[in-house]
From TrEMBL, chain A:
Belongs to the cyclin family. Keywords: Cyclin. This is Cyclin-like domain-containing protein. It comes from the Eukaryota. Residues 85-166 form the Cyclin-like domain. The keyword tRNA processing does not apply. Signal peptide: none annotated. It comes from Sphagnum troendelagicum. Residues 290-314 are annotated as: Disordered. Pfam families: Cyclin_C_2 (PF16899), Cyclin_N (PF00134). Residues 300-311 have a biased composition (Basic residues). The keyword Cell inner membrane does not apply.
TrEMBL record, chain B:
Residues 12-292 form the Protein kinase domain. SUPFAM superfamilies: Protein kinase-like (PK-like) (SSF56112). Residues 298-371 are annotated as: Disordered. ATP binds at K42. The keyword Methyltransferase does not apply. Belongs to the protein kinase superfamily. CMGC Ser/Thr protein kinase family. CDC2/CDKX subfamily. It comes from Sphagnum jensenii. This is Protein kinase domain-containing protein.
């Protein structure tokens, strides 16, 4: 459900505040007039799309005094809000996916852009909206199940379906609606990507001097900042600008930026060791830690070299090379490749 | 509000009945507002147990969002006398009628034109996250201007939600992608693309390309043509719910399947019939394939030869519910050449009890005759 740009939702159902006022007033006004004319505001939509006012027409002005008082626009709004909450409650009681209630609420709202709650019972319309939403979102619940679950006659659910659907009356059969839940997912997904990218940067940070030089918070910010720079997701600068004030930090924004830049630089400038170098240095390390190994090692090594020449294979996995030594990769930062030192120990 | 002269039923002057659909009658009508000829699909609401038919609702909700020259236009929807009426633009014919009509010669340029329109329509659907799920020649309608339009969105669905399971029981059997036949429930636009490949092949061969008689036989037909997929070709295959091992059969050279097709044509076919849905070409990529960029240029739609307009009246228009083989006997024999004699080897047995067959682990030569 993703192409909002070309959707009927965007084209027809993003209204202005003026539209809302106008629509509600018009519906309210029509209901008030019906009340005066027919003695009741109730409207029934016939299956063929025509409308019927079941109230008996009032002759002259005689009945006027005994007429019930119509709802005001503000009262109508309140009633609608109430039933919108109910939609959430009913959907939660059925443990429908969140999309169902969101779609149902939008159907309900659209419906009452055309009608007054005085004309169509919001309690019934609410149920029909939930039922229709289930259908459209392909979450199949029978009218009977729905009715049973809330102790309502399933016929009530079905009765208004066409009314709610109907073209030229309420929703023009425009049934695909977009709700912010998916958008939240989308934005969080962006941020998840940012998180992954930042973690990746932290991985390489951990292999530098940086953890010894900077507090973790700053390292994290630097990582996020760098990740965001590579593929911008958020306005990080603004976030950072607010940060010093929020955290009562000693650093100003400029200082913070300076710190982050130096972290970034540090990470970039650190060469990661290559396996061959490490193996060589590890050997060196072993011997210098325990010079006694050297003579013993010489014989071993010569044998090894001979074997190697035989097999023409030099595939000693790095893990093995490091197995017996307390060497930690984190200590290896800053090792530059030096070409000529290779055979020092021999 | 309410139905006036130009609203609801009053807007249309009812004409002859065009045919009987799955859930109601289709009749021709004139739209008084636009003076256009339209087709009105009447959907019974009579039973009223579950209100508006879900299939109809699907078609309405999706077509309201899909407006494109290569997708059927839903002009209006109105209820009348306990029926829901869907008003479509009137279409003269469909691609099945073209393929079936032996008086029509389909030049390579004509085929290219039909395929281009088909893929354009599909690309729009997929761009808007809609799977058609019932692509076949008689759902590709042809207007009097020669434009081809995707129709019948009764099985269509929105896709793209993570973890949304779909049914694999979609498409007419002959157009069903291998992942569906293996019971995949998480599939994407590739299923429509495979079907588009089948339609492409059908335009070239003038008969349905892979005419299986059951799910298993359909896979047999597919593997008989393109070879049994190896895991390197389609890594996820073995983890599909209904996966069964088929005896290895080598792929037929595409050239032998489509002797008359050009190099570009064969290359595109190969990409449409890629086993792994992840590496199958997309509709948009297919449209950018060099097949569409090289000579001959696609025939302009209005120059395409069309079968005589549907004769008006119900009897002729009832589309056969059963698969219908259009090919003359000699063509059918050619199918057998690369189809092997699968149909003879315990066919009835297999169909009546496919589960037994699956439980055997490696169904050997009794099931798949060597191709």
């Amino acid at each position: 459900m993703a192409d909002f740009i070309t959707s009927t939702h965007r084209k027809k159902w993003i209204l202005s505040p003026q539209d809302l006022i106008k629509n509600c007033q018009a519906a309210n006004q029509r209901a008030v007039e019906a009340l005066q004319k027919y003695g009741a505001t109730r409207v029934e939509c016939q299956p063929d799309g025509t409308l019927a006012y079941p109230g008996a027409p009032i002759q002259g002005d005689s009945g006027q005094g005994s007429l019930p008082e119509p709802l005001t626009v503000a009262e109508e709004l309140l009633v609608r809000r109430f039933y919108e909450q109910k939609i959430q409650q009913v959907s939660a009681a059925f443990s429908f996916p969140y999309k169902i209630q969101a779609t149902a609420i939008l159907y309900f709202k659209r419906f009452y852009q055309k009608w007054s709650v005085m004309e169509h019972d919001p309690k019934h319309i609410m149920l029909t909206c939930i039922y229709l939403s289930c259908k459209v979102e392909e979450f199949h619940v029978s009218a009977e199940e729905l009715g049973k679950g809330i102790q309502q006659d399933p016929q009530v659910v079905l009765k208004n379906e066409l009314t709610v659907l109907q073209a030229s009356v309420s929703m023009y059969f425009e049934l695909i609606v977009y709700t912010p839940y998916r958008s939240v997912d989308g934005f969080i997904y962006d941020l998840e990507e940012l998180k992954l990218a930042a973690q990746f940067i932290v991985d390489s940070m951990m292999l530098t001097d940086a953890p010894l030089l900077f507090p973790p918070g700053q390292l994290a910010l630097a990582a996020l900042c760098t990740a965001n720079r590579e593929e911008p997701k958020v306005d990080f600068d603004r976030y950072l600008q607010n940060m010093p004030g929020r955290q009562r930090q000693r650093h100003s924004y400029a200082e913070l930026m300076g710190v982050l830049d130096s972290i970034d630089l540090l990470v970039k400038d650190t060469n990661q060791p290559v396996e061959a170098d490490v193996r060589r240095i590890d050997r060196k390390l072993k011997y210098c830690r325990n010079p006694g190994l050297q003579d013993e090692g010489k014989g071993k090594r010569e044998r090894k070299v001979k074997q190697k020449q035989k097999r023409a294979s030099h595939d000693i996995p790095m893990v093995n090379a490091l197995d017996n030594s307390p060497l930690d990769l984190n200590e290896m930062h800053g090792v530059k490749r030096r070409q000529s030192e290779g055979d020092v120990m021999l | 509000m309410g139905s006036g002269e130009t609203n609801g039923a009053g807007r249309y002057i009812k004409g002859v009945t065009l045919g009987e659909g799955t859930f109601g009658v289709v009749f021709k009508a004139i739209d008084r507002v636009t003076n256009r000829t339209v087709a009105v699909k009447k959907i019974r609401l009579g039973k009223y147990k579950e209100g508006v038919n879900v299939t109809a609702l699907r078609e309405i909700k999706l077509l309201k969002e899909l407006q494109d020259p290569n997708i059927i236009e839903l002009i209006d929807v109105y209820p009348h006398k306990r029926n829901l009426h869907l008003v479509f633009e009137y279409m003269e014919s469909d691609l099945e009628a073209v393929i079936r009509d032996r008086n029509i010669v389909l030049s390579p340029a004509d085929i290219k034109s039909y395929m281009q329109m088909t893929l354009k329509g599909l690309a729009v659907c997929h761009k808007k996250w809609v799977l058609h799920r019932d692509m076949k020649p008689n759902n590709l309608l042809l207007g009097s201007d020669g434009q081809l339009k995707l129709a019948d969105f009764g099985l269509a669905r929105i896709f793209g939600s993570p973890d949304r399971k779909f049914t694999h029981q979609v498409f007419a059997l002959w157009y069903r992608a291998p992942e569906l036949l293996f019971g995949s429930k998480f599939y994407g636009p590739g299923v429509d693309i495979w079907a588009a490949g089948c339609i492409f092949a059908e335009l070239i061969l003038r008969r349905p390309f892979l005419q299986g008689s059951s799910d298993i036989d359909q896979l047999g037909k597919i593997f008989g043509a393109f070879g049994t997929p190896r895991e390197s070709q389609w890594p996820d295959m073995t983890s599909l719910p209904d996966y069964v091992e088929y005896q290895y059969s080598p792929p037929q050279p595409f050239r032998s399947l489509f002797p008359m097709a050009s190099e570009d044509c064969i290359d595109l076919l190969q990409r449409l019939f890629t086993y792994d849905p992840r590496s199958r070409i997309s509709a948009q990529q297919a449209l950018e394939h060099r097949y569409f960029l090289t000579e001959p240029v696609p025939t302009k739609p209005h120059l395409l030869r069309r079968p005589p307009p549907r004769s008006e009246g119900p009897p002729e228009l009832q589309s056969p519910a059963e698969p219908f083989v259009f090919s003359p006997p000699n063509k059918a024999r050619r199918v057998q050449l690369f189809g092997g004699d699968i149909r003879t080897a315990g066919e009835a047995n297999r169909e009546s009890n496919p589960q037994d067959f699956r439980d055997q682990g490696t169904p050997g030569d009794t099931i798949m005759a060597p191709m």
